[in-house]
Amino acid sequence: MASKESAMSGRLDITRRVACGAVYAVIAAVAGAVFTSTISHAYGPERATFTRQNAAPYVTLNAITDSDPYGYEPRFVRVRDVSDNAPFSADSVKITSGHTYEVFLYYHNNAKSSLNLTAENTYARVNIPAEIRKGEKAHVIGYVGASNANPKEVWDEVEIIGEDDVTIRTIGDSGKIVGSKDNPINGMAIDIGKLLSKEGHPLGYYALDGKLPGCSEYSGHLLMRFTAVRADFDLKNRVSEAGKNNWQKSINVKHGDTVDIALSYRNTGSVIQQNVSFHDILPKGLSIVPGSVEWYSGHTNGKWKKIDTEDHLTTAPGLNVGDYAPQGNAYVQFKATVDVASCGSHVLENKLKIYTENGTRGDTATIRVENAACHGETNSKVVVAVAGGGALIVVMGVVWFVVRRKSHKPRATGRRKK
């Protein structure tokens, strides 16, 4: 990695005179922008560098150390947080869900103007990670190259750090070229897809044809934007005694009682979640009251809507309630009957799974059934019915693990003292 030279700190003039007698507004797109650089990061490859007074005797790219007004050209990539109106940074930028970011990439054929050397097949390309985890460090990397340049390709990077778990999405119509006011391609749109491709996007001066003459008056920069989005959601599984609306994670009931169960979903991310589905997994001893399942969201026009059959809810992948924008929510509710007649204490666990195209999560509500003690025993026997089969039986402080074979005949597999 080349040693870094300080050059980019402070406010740049919007328009300043450059070598070769041209005028180039290096930050015309962002009036009064500030470039900051305080930490050394990687750029390359190792190559000869030049100055305004001693330009290159051959085609080379971004190798001037005192470019006016840009400064140290080997550090030619910048990123800024548009949402916070932050300055461009060459070093490190925090990536926050819901924010928009702008990438700046500078290009310049450093060959002496007197030599009339044109860079051929000149291009730029940008590499941006598709996602970044909270606390993770990644990089936005920019490349500029030409088929007759020495070296053929140069690169620079800006560190980005995830403030959240985010997915990065480029903004398709955000790309453009910025150059001197007389540059024929100044303000021209560029294809983001090409810019992000392995081949890159052609650069130029008279046209985006890959031909870039040598001298600062033919230099320029490109801009593009991306957003950071986060897919996340909350869910709840709550139960209440019938008609009381006293929603809890766990309640105590008796055999034959009816309970109300409320399930909810809320999009807490910054991206639309598609094909949200509710899947309720009932334990043995709990059955849905026919015709009681209904759901509510913006898709039902703010009214509770019955579903045709509870199988839509209890069979995977569950009841599909549509797509939801950030802060969108949906609810499902139903009544269920407790059918556990055997003596002793029983624990029924109702399980909810929410499926989305961004992942699956679950939540559990507990229904404790207190029946009369078995003959000759105290209520020290507790049976825990687990959704999906199997049970734990606690008798007088001893835990028995009961599983099912493929024949569905239960067997005890072991015990341990409580």
Task: Give the count of structural domains.
Answer: 2
Work out the strand percent: 35-45%
Tally of helical segments: 2
Radius of gyration: 33 Å
Overall helicity:
under 10%
Q: Could you characterize the architecture of this molecule?
A:
This protein is an all-beta fold. It has two domains: 187 residues, no CATH class; 139 residues, Sandwich (Immunoglobulin-like), CATH 2.60.40. Helices cover 2% and strands 45% of the residues. It contains two helices and 34 strands. Strands 21, 23, 27, 29, 30, 31, 32, 33 and 34 form a nine-stranded mixed sheet that branches. Strands 5, 8, 11, 13, 14 and 17 form a six-stranded mixed sheet that branches. The radius of gyration is 33 Å and the shape is rod-shaped. The two termini are 63 Å apart.
Protein topology:
Elements: E1 10-11, E2 16-17, E3 23-24, E4 34-36, E5 43-44, E6 77-81, E7 88-89, E8 92-95, E9 100-107, E10 118-119, E11 123-127, E12 131-132, E13 137-145, E14 153-162, E15 166-170, E16 176-179, H1 192-195, E17 201-202, E18 212-213, E19 220-229, E20 233-241, E21 250-253, E22 258-267, E23 273-281, E24 286-288, E25 294-297, E26 305-306, H2 311-314, E27 319-324, E28 329-338, E29 345-356, E30 359-370, E31 382-386, E32 391-395, E33 398-404, E34 410-417
Parallel strand pairs: 4-7, 8-14, 21-30, 29-31
Antiparallel strand pairs: 1-4, 2-3, 5-14, 6-9, 9-19, 10-18, 11-13, 11-17, 12-15, 13-14, 15-19, 16-19, 20-22, 22-28, 23-27, 23-29, 24-28, 25-26, 25-28, 29-30, 31-32, 32-33, 33-34
